[in-house]
Write a structure and sequence with these properties.
Structural class: alpha/beta
Order of helices and strands: EHEHHHEHEHHHEHHHHH
CATH topology: Rossmann fold
């Protein structure tokens, strides 16, 4: 029988799944978060961040009626980014203007984060913890709190991500570079943006460029065995293979229940099929694609998209 965490010292190798946003965090978490070893923050932790015992609701997914596709319905507790919970631990976690680093960690914030994670594990009765977040890497910050943390970086073709950004209202690139929280791009990038008349698609491509470069740079500061890169394109091609690779990376074993869960998750390749919006290759013309190659070609090549 698996043990449970009883205090903040019982946290062992927490796993954080990160990406730029619109990169495939949700489908990967749909696959791996329901391994029987994992506790995770849910939408209810986000709604009531001060009430640790609300995490007990997440045990519903272990009850037979909810072990199938029902676990992914809206009212059932589901893994969530839960920024209200993390902002309670550190008010700038959700939307800092720069990446958070180890130097931003205080003893008080360390205590709050570890207590929050420990509480979720205790009430969910699970021995390990997994959570997702998007945007800045926050790798240095989280390793300052959890020195043995492991990270899974989900990366998706920047052309697809840029197209997706321009189809959601909440993307703060609509406000322009002087209002978004990523800081000013380099002079050469600014010159290119000016050349393209600050096209919103160009801004979205630069948005991805800044964040994916930040994650790549921060990733070089941690031991290779603590980082796994998952390409969205490989995830949607063979979801079960990538899920198994992630579980092995986390030091967990496959089991019958987990394999049964994998069979209940339907993964749609949004790069080739319509999922709320048409695929990027069907929506963008050749001039727009060439513009993005000019802006983010180096990063696309780094992750083998060019």
């Amino acid at each position: 029988m698996m043990g449970t965490a009883t205090d903040a010292e019982g946290i062992d190798r927490p796993v954080f799944v990160l990406g730029t946003g619109r990169s495939g965090l949700t489908p990967l978490m749909d696959l791996i978060a329901y391994h029987p070893a994992f506790a995770w923050p849910s939408q209810y932790n986000d709604r009531w961040p001060n009430v640790a015992r609300v995490s007990a609701l997440s045990r519903l997914v272990d009850v037979p009626p909810f072990r199938g596709p029902w676990k992914l319905t809206r009212v059932v507790p589901k893994h969530a980014e839960s920024y209200n919970l993390w902002n309670r631990c550190y008010p700038g976690f959700a939307e800092p203007f720069r990446d958070l680093t180890c130097g931003d960690v205080t003893e008080w914030s360390r205590t709050l984060f570890r207590d929050a994670v420990s509480g979720i594990m205790r009430y969910q009765r699970k021995p390990m913890f997994i959570a997702e977040y998007s945007g800045w890497s926050r790798i240095g910050f989280l390793r300052g709190i959890f020195p043995d943390a492991k990270f899974i970086h989900v990366v998706r073709d920047g052309r697809a991500v840029a197209h997706s950004y321009t189809n959601v209202e909440w993307w703060n690139g609509w406000q322009g570079i002087h209002r978004w929280r990523l800081g000013m791009p380099d002079d050469d990038v600014l010159a290119k943006l000016d050349h393209y008349r600050y096209s919103f698609l160009a801004l979205a491509a630069v948005y991805w460029k800044i964040l994916v470069s930040n994650i790549a740079k921060a990733s070089r500061e941690i031991p290779p065995e603590d980082l796994l890169v998952v390409r969205y394109e490989e995830l949607v091609t063979d979801p079960h293979k990538e899920a198994q690779r992630c579980i092995e990376f986390c030091g967990l074993k496959d089991d019958r229940g987990f394999r049964r869960h994998l069979g209940t998750v339907n993964i749609v390749d949004a790069n080739t099929k319509k999922l709320r919006i048409p695929p990027w290759r069907e929506s963008l013309d050749s001039a727009q694609i060439e513009m993005m190659h000019d802006l983010i070609g180096d990063e696309l090549a780094r992750f083998s998209y060019l």
